[in-house]
Fold this sequence. Notes:
By secondary structure, the protein is mostly helical. It has one domain. The chain is built from 10 helices and no strands.
Amino acid sequence: MENFLWYPIEHLPFIVLVLMMVFTIHEFAHAYFAFKFGDDTAHKAGRVTLNPMVHLDLLGSILLLIVGFGWAKPVPVNPSRFKHRRTMSIIVSAAGPVSNLVLGAFGMFIFYILNEFGVLSSSSEGVFMALLTFFYYLITINILLFVFNLIPLPPLDGFRIISDLLPLRIRYKLDQNLHWGMIIFLLIVFIPPLRAVTLDPILGLTDIIFDSLAQFYNSIFTPIKWS
């Protein structure tokens, strides 16, 4: 069975728990800000909630465990209901990725706090490794989703942000060729050579953000060796 999973099978419980958290927070952030800005579409659909079952997509979750790529249920948003359409649309789109970055940074903060108060050093080896594994995935997956979702290709949030920043004339042309962007995205995701070329800089940037956060917390708390 392990050969069919993207992650080590012994880490599966941690992965499932982390994915439930990161997808839920991401989609909730989209729905929450859309509702606060005057669009009740997501609220009527029951998406302004932290209930994971409302946000998770079964096929997207299974594929993420098998091939390392998946998705949650997209949040329905009607930008025409926003008072300041372009600005609020950008904030709603950015809310998902930013929420993942905040959750990743907060997860690292909690782990350093546990270390600072001796919870890690007083734990058994099994408990220590369980905590290390959980927080490592919580932090890295959140940072990875932050970076990945800012890629300016549909259906990612980065495309929506770029689209709302562009003049209407250019945005209209982009919308007319939306299918080509989707095709490029699918090719990158499912063709291994293209995926490898794209994934390398994404992972590189993820490592830079992770290391920067670790250096920041190391300057405040007792340093932690992550690997």
